[in-house]
């Protein structure tokens, strides 16, 4: 009796250690198994903490250049994905944005948007140099490739990312994204220097919720909600 209890205990303990063994490698980043059609390699990658998105990057300090591949899957294939650096704040307001979607002929394109506030989303030049921009779309997943100039000797940059389910085909503007918690928490610090491993959000919380309202046509209720949250920084 006692010995069979012993055996049971032993089996449970081994089972638990086995589980632990199986689980810890599973914490290895998903991004490390992602590869690109153009065989481009990046020095670093991280699984971003929200929206099942991934950032691959190579930082070249001597050129202050950051080469990235941003991988994300919108809920619909006619949707959009976006990755931004915000040079002035943590979240959406100020985000210098690279946004990918599929045009009518199915080809993925990348547009740049200067997002000053939730009501000012202007296509055009960003606050820093951007080059080697392209996008891929495969099995519902977009990859945005780009190289950007970051401030000289920057230790980190504020990154913001987002997904949306549709693009206005007439205007080429992204339709606003959901406002579920992950959509409002999808920002973090990307540490460029070696001593921090991955970019992790250190959100102060503060109930900061916000709405990325793209385009017009909001009703008064939405407008007043937007005005209410305007005081808080707006999550992308
Ligand atoms: C980094 O940038 C410098 C200056 O443009 C260049 O000479 C060097 O080859 C780059 N390093 C890598 C690894 O690309
Ligand atoms: C260095 O940065 C410039 C843009 O500022 C870019 O044109 C050039 O390709 C970069 N060189 C490297 C090696 O990344
Ligand atoms: C982005 O928009 C703001 C406000 O309109 C403007 O002050 C800023 O110069 C713009 N940035 C770029 C790079 O055009
Ligand atoms: C798409 O954009 C056009 C032009 O800005 C606008 O007239 C139209 O109402 C928009 N469509 C939708 C569904 O929002
Ligand atoms: C990026 O990868 C390089 C080369 O493996 C490594 O030395 C460096 O510490 C990494 N940087 C970060 C921020 O993890
Ligand atoms: C990492 O580097 C930053 C400055 O770049 C420094 O403030 C911080 O103490 C360093 N952290 C560790 C653990 O070395
Ligand atoms: C996160 O923020 C808190 C409060 O501002 C600070 O005390 C803490 O050191 C930060 N942690 C990291 C990893 O930056």
UniProtKB/TrEMBL annotation:
It is found in: Membrane. The lineage of its organism: Eukaryota, Viridiplantae, Streptophyta, Embryophyta, Tracheophyta. It comes from Prunus dulcis. InterPro entries: AIR12_DOMON (IPR045265), DOMON_domain (IPR005018), UCP037471 (IPR017214). PROSITE patterns: DOMON (PS50836). Keywords: Electron transport, Membrane, Signal, Transport. This is DOMON domain-containing protein. Residues 51-164 form the DOMON domain. Residues 1-28 form the signal peptide.
């Amino acid at each position: 009796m006692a010995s069979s209890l012993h055996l049971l205990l032993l089996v449970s303990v081994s089972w638990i250690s086995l589980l632990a063994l199986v689980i810890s490698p599973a914490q290895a980043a998903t991004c490390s198994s992602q590869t690109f059609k153009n065989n481009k390699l990046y020095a670093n990658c991280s699984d971003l903490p929200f929206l099942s998105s991934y950032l691959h990057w190579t930082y070249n300090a001597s050129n202050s250049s950051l080469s990235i591949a941003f991988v994300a899957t919108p809920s619909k294939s006619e949707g959009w994905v976006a990755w931004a650096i915000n040079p002035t704040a943590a979240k959406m307001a100020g985000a210098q944005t690279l946004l990918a979607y599929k045009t009518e002929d199915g080809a993925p394109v990348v547009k740049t948007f200067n997002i000053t506030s939730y009501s000012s989303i202007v296509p055009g030049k960003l606050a820093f140099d951007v080059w080697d921009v392209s996008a891929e779309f495969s099995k519902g997943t977009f990859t945005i490739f780009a190289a950007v100039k970051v401030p000289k000797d920057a230790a980190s940059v504020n990154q913001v990312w987002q997904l949306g389910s549709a693009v206005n085909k007439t205007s080429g503007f992204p339709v606003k994204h959901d406002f579920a918690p992950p959509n409002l928490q999808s920002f973090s610090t990307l540490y460029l220097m070696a001593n921090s491993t991955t970019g992790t959000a250190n959100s102060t919380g503060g109930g900061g919720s916000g709405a990325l309202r793209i385009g017009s046509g909001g009703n008064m209720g939405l407008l007043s909600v937007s005005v209410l949250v305007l005081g808080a920084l707006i999550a992308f």
